[in-house]
Amino acid sequence: MGRAKLHHIPGYAWHLTHRCHDKAFLLKFARDKRRWLHWLFEAKKRYGLVILGYTITSNHIHLLVYDTGRDQVISRSILLTASRTAREYNIRKDRSGAFWEDHYHATAVETETHLREGLIYVELNMVRAGVVDHPKNWPFGTYSEIFGGRQRYRLVDTATLMRLLGIGSRELLKSAYDSWIREKLSRGTNEREPKWTESIAVGGERFVVEIKERLGVRAATSRIIPAYEGRTGTGPDREEGASYILRENDDPYGSILMGKKGLLSNSVKLGAFTIDL
Q1: Residue 4 three-state SS
Q2: What is the pTM of this model?
Q3: Could you give the CA distance from residue 139 to residue 227 in angstroms, rounded to a whole number?
């Protein structure tokens, strides 16, 4: 197994998306979602992964984390969680072959306002999919943990989350979280936003410039654009002009920086499948 190189920049929040192979519904059963959560908890215990939020769907996962700078914590955690979940599923189903797509996508997220937007975007995934009408009815997301009162096997580092959001107490966090969700649902703007799953960074202009500079040669061909560019209609990005994204070159396979897998990815072979880290 090759050793993964760390491409995450310490000191930032990251939104990670990892999809099942060919978008197959390999996580459709509750037992497999619970096993993914179990191994995510193991990653938290073993490596000190700082988890800010998550949602598991039937064919992909969303995970918000904070990079503290410890040695390859994010990549090692994803490797553990993905590989063990896949192995258990394949054994149970007497199945072989890839469980996950070759790589997960990582997007740096500016804290406070943009982190809040990212959390709610992740939280409302299953509402967008028409599975539930409110995240309180989906047991495999951050909402169930924040409002469920569960103390054992907690995944979210609420102290770090509150600090990054600029919130002073758990009660204020619950109140704010609920109001953000109600506001988003009432506005009827719960649509898919590619910036969260296709960008290198999301935030204010200064933040995005900083990420591009810190990535250096790895982001040399990327470009900074307003987050609303290419979208139709109106929305908070278009109205306020406050959000920008760092987007990869439209032809990542032509970039000398990205090799065959993309700017923020490195491959680790694991049996019959590959995880990019």
Answers
A1: coil
A2: 0.84
A3: 31
